[in-house]
Amino acid sequence: MLDNFSLQWPWHPWTMLVLLVLCVLYFLGARQARKKASGPVINQRHIVAFLSSIVLMALVLLTPIDTVARTQYFWVHIAQTITLTTVCAPLLIVSCSWVVTLVLARPVIRAILAFLTGPVVASILFNVVFLLWHAPRFMDSAVSSPALYEVMEWSIFFFSLLNWYPLVGESRELRTMSYPMQMLYAFIDGQPVDIFAFVLVYTDTSIYPHFQASMGAHLPAYADQALGGALLLIPGLVDLAVMTPLFFQWLKMIERRSTLADQRRQLALETEEEEEWEDEESEIQPGHAIS
Q1: Are 244 and 180 in contact (CB under 8 A)?
Q2: C-alpha R_g of the chain
Q3: How far apart are CA 253 and CA 226, in angstroms?
Q4: Number of Cβ within a 10 Å radius of residue 146
Q5: Residue 246 has what pLDDT?
Q6: What contacts 122, CB < 8 A, 6 or more positions away?
Q7: What is the DSSP string of the chain?
Q8: How many whole angstroms separate alpha carbon 223 and alpha carbon 206?
Q9: What is the C-alpha to C-alpha distance for residues 146 and 152, in angstroms, rounded to an integer?
Q10: Cβ atoms within 10 A of the Cβ of 50, count?
């Protein structure tokens, strides 16, 4: 099976440059932030998440995986894209939470980020970009050009960052949805891609001529496409995994509010009883003085 995969290493200087610049800026920024006593908190979790995201991006974009994804198998392309959007994007957001804290100090940047990471805007932008790139005409153009394919993957990745922020972003200024709204967002946001995935799975003919022509007899084109569609359902399972802790956090919040409400009612009741007791005392004392 492995003999059917290309072992040609791609040459993507812009991708290498972007990853290198990200690393340099991240660690220089972290070094400067740690020198400031009032700077944002940067712990080992942030560093591990950042390095994991960079290593995974390099793995799927700078190795033969990228060549196979662009020239041979559609399902490998989907696996590559899912890795970028479902694993690398949230890891990068978690690792850069301290960066967001710093840039939010600038009102103009804060306003732009607040608009782009708004649930409706972020969801529409990501789904439109993803589905447009996977329209047959645009996809055939992208896979025919290494540079354009590179642009496609980076654009989908960028908008997935915006798409994930309402769920995993740590800034309270940008992440303003309640737990029920976050669960609703996670559910609705994944529907367009899930519908597209089912179309790929249940369509008997290949809609991507490029992959159909490049595979030969190793894998039927419709099977390659169906496998890609099946993999594309994975983000929906991830959304479900995200909704589960949100649901329990919502229950905990309801429990805390209920406990606080009970404590307030108990305090009010005790206060009312004390006031009644004081009133009774004040009424009894004059009576004793007369007798």
Answers
A1: no
A2: 27
A3: 42
A4: 16
A5: 64
A6: 116, 159, 162, 163, 165, 166
A7: -GGGS--PPP--HHHHHHHHHHHHHHHHHHHHHHHSTTSPP--HHHHHHHHHHHHHHHHHHSSHHHHHHHHT-HHHHHHHHHIIIIIIHHHHHHHTHHHHHHHTTSHHHHHHHHHHTSHHHHHHHHHHHHHHHTSHHHHHHHHT-HHHHHHHHHHHHHHHHHHHHHHH---TTT----HHHHHHHHHHHTHHHHHHHHHHHH-SS-S-HHHHHHHTTSS-HHHHHHHHHHHTTHHHHHHHHHHHHHHHHHHHHHHHHHHHHHHHHHHHHHHHHHHHHHHHHHHHHHHHHH-
A8: 9
A9: 10
A10: 22
User: What average pLDDT does the structure give for the chain?
Assistant: 82
Token duo for residue 9: 């290493």
Q: What is the pLDDT of residues 212-224, one digit of tens each?
A: 666 554 677 788 8
Give the per-residue pLDDT at 290: 46
Residue 17, token pair as written in the block: 């440059």
Cα 36 to chain center, whole Å? 29
- Residue 1's pLDDT band (boundaries 50, 70, 90)? very low
The CA distance from 104 to 175, in Å, is 13
Whether 172 and 157 have beta carbons less than 8 Å apart is answered as no
pLDDT (0 to 100) of residue 56 = 96
pLDDT in tens, 160-208: 999 988 888 776 665 667 767 777 888 888 889 999 999 999 887 888 8
